[in-house]
Design a protein that fits this description.
This protein is 28% helix and 20% strand. It is an alpha/beta fold and 270 residues long. The protein has two domains: 131 residues, TIM Barrel (Alpha-Beta Barrel); 117 residues, TIM Barrel (Alpha-Beta Barrel), CATH 3.20.20. The protein has an eight-stranded mixed β-barrel with strand order 1-7-5-3-2-10-9-8. Strands 4-6 form a two-stranded parallel sheet. Helix 7 links the parallel strand 9 and strand 10. The longest helix is centred in the middle third of the chain and has 15 residues. About 2% of the residues have low confidence. Belongs to the glycosyl hydrolase 18 family. InterPro entries: Cts1-like, GH, Glyco_hydro18_cat, Glyco_hydro_18_chit_AS, Glycosyl_Hydrlase18_Chitinase. This is chitinase. One of its GO terms (cellular component) is extracellular region.
């Protein structure tokens, strides 16, 4: 599932292109993704099960089987990416997950789990092996809108229904806002006004370090909102790059980027 909301990260610096990887077994390996040289961030999609006492579970589609500890082999890929300067982020949530936080204590338990199993803590059962990820991406598209600020993401119509409050905390380094599947915020047939107005609201009202323009990498990657390369590079990016909060472009997803070479086509303009 493509993310249906803007997403946010904690623990990463912003620049360039961010890509979602993990939901299609035909999109190449994580190591190959980073070796393209096109991406500054790779978001591992997704950890869709957590909260409310559930055992958190990662789902990387056809890439590996977490139920047999089959994803621990990704540790070497993650380290290879990081050696190339690519930040590898775990994306929690997604469009088809089972997740919500029932209380502050529930949020604390999830945060502790994420720290010990994916970040700088320690655990005997780290799903991705001993590699230490560079941050957490919050792609929250359902559940309730409570307690996300206790755990420490957004949909373009402002403010985001699920995590608008959390975004106002100032705890997020990067926010990749989905300017697709949201017609009131989209570029459409040469008309920049909706996207530009939405962009101005995000950069003025959200205290994040960097805001990214979230786009589908191919027409088939989303229901609406695809921007042809020529329009993006000649019209859209020149209109938003002047902001000191501009961080780059987020793309859904690596599989669709492989079909169109979208990131390669826009990289020099981002």
């Amino acid at each position: 599932m493509a993310p249906n909301k803007p997403s946010s990260t904690i623990g990463a610096d912003a620049a360039g292109i961010a890509i979602y990887w993990g939901q299609n077994g035909n999109e190449g390996t994580l190591e190959e993704t980073c070796a393209t040289g096109n991406y500054e961030f790779v978001n591992l999609a997704f950890l869709p099960t957590f909260g409310n006492g559930q055992t958190p579970m990662i789902n990387l589609a056809g890439h590996c089987d977490p139920y047999t500890n089959g994803c621990t082999g990704l540790s070497s890929d993650i380290k290879s990416c990081q050696a190339k300067g690519v930040k590898v982020i775990l994306s929690i949530g997604g469009g088809a997950g089972s997740y919500y936080l029932t209380s502050k204590e529930d949020a604390r338990q999830v945060a502790t789990y994420l720290w010990n199993n994916f970040l700088g803590g320690s655990s005997s059962s780290r799903p991705l092996g001993d590699a230490v990820l560079d941050g957490i991406d919050f792609d929250i598209e359902g559940g309730t809108n409570l307690h996300w600020d206790d755990l420490a993401t957004p949909q373009c119509p402002f403010p985001d229904a699920w995590v608008g409050g959390a975004l106002k905390t100032g705890l997020f380094d990067n926010v990749w806002v989905q300017f697709y599947n949201n017609p009131p915020c989209q570029y459409s047939s040469g008309d920049l006004s909706n996207l530009e107005n939405a962009w101005k609201q995000w950069i003025s009202d959200i205290p994040a370090t960097k805001i990214f323009l979230g786009l589908p990498a191919a027409p088939a990657a989303a229901g609406s909102g695809f921007i042809p390369v020529a329009d993006l590079t000649s019209k859209v990016l020149p209109a938003i790059k002047g902001s000191p909060k501009y961080g780059g472009v987020m793309l859904w997803s690596k599989y669709y980027d492989d079909q169109t070479n979208y990131s390669s086509s826009i990289k020099s303009s981002v």
